[in-house]
Write a structure and sequence with these properties.
This protein is of the alpha+beta class and about 130 residues long. It has a four-stranded antiparallel sheet with strand order 2-1-3-4, with no helix packed on it. It has a three-stranded antiparallel sheet with strand order 5-7-6. A hairpin with a 2-residue loop joins strand 1 and strand 2.
């Protein structure tokens, strides 16, 4: 710390020996600094019945299902009744890289049905 008191951590004047945890924001007379979090990447074969949300009030949410000690979030989502591969991470940059439409990543889905498809050969839908 410089003796001028210009170093702060989350807006509070820093003290000698203060430990900075990942994700906290520090500032000095030379700008704002942030300690980088170690990136976490989890590939999960999500079972049916788990909701792809970080909202803790939602029963059977994916974050509680994983039970990871650090903050993570799903990359995209699968419906609650769906199962399959989903990625979870704390790396917002890779989430943006994967999900932004302008990056034109091809996605492929395999869909199973619980009954045969029937083809309607007459007017099945009426115009509203």
């Amino acid at each position: 710390m410089d003796r001028s008191g210009r170093v702060t951590l989350n807006g509070v004047r820093a003290q000698l020996g203060l430990k900075v945890q990942a994700g906290r924001r520090g500032s000095s007379g030379r700008g704002t600094h942030r300690r980088q979090e170690k990136p976490i990447y989890i590939a999960l074969n999500k079972p049916a019945g788990i909701t792809c949300t970080t909202e803790s009030h939602v029963q059977d949410n994916i974050v509680d299902f994983i039970g990871h000690a650090e903050r993570i979030f799903p990359v995209g989502r699968l419906d609650k009744d769906s199962e399959g591969l989903i990625l979870l991470t704390n790396d917002g940059d890779i989430v943006n890289e994967i999900l932004r439409s302008e990056n034109e990543h091809e996605k492929e889905y395999l869909v199973g049905l619980n009954r045969p498809i029937t083809i309607c050969r007459s007017a099945c839908w009426r115009a509203a």
